[in-house]
Amino acid sequence: MGMPKQFNDIIQRRLNIFAAWLPISNTYQLGDYGIIADGVFAKMGNIKELGISFTSGQGPSASIDFTSDSTRVINIAAGAEVDVIPEGALNAKVTYKFEKERSFLVKSPSITVNTIENINEVGTKLIGKPKWQKRFKVVHESYLAKEAVIMSTIEAGTEITFSGNVKALQQLNIGNVSVSFTSRNKLGFDLQGAEGIIGLGLFQLVKGGFLGLGAQKVQVLDDEDKEEPMEIQKLSASTVVDDL
Question: What is the pTM (predicted TM-score) of this model?
């Protein structure tokens, strides 16, 4: 399994959405459309370029705290291992020991969810676009992660040590700007203390049956079949296959 697909599986299991790849350092926006390629969303354009506007809003906030299995977390204060880092500890550190290769650490204490509020109206307008393809997916939710940490290992036995602000380390808020890290081994992916898009909610226009969860019907008939209405499907990452 490639790294993008592995990351997508983590985001899907924890947040039930699609991963934004590359995470954080991307330019995804509400209204982006594209296809699923190699398990992740590939942007092709934005519906605003097609003359379609929408109303944006915010959904409930979220968070994510994922560490791969067989990973040990060790707290250190004044050179000794402790169960909990005490207040005012000297030389406080938190070390993650990854026993398996290709392990992941994904954390963000605060994720803001931006949404398209008028999905049915947008879907109705898309149906009227002659060049719109039914395989296209549209970003209707974007998940903005703050103080994010996203790291992956290459080799088994990799250790990543975080040091700095004691209060942040006590809370395992290792994405805090006052926390830094070191690793004994080369990492497959390393990002710490950044803010950006980590995940996407997608919808698709389909005929009849479900491709995902949470269908919202649009009462507009397809040009090719006047008897079968189109539906908006809010897609589940666990049920969608590549479009290529």
Answer: 0.85
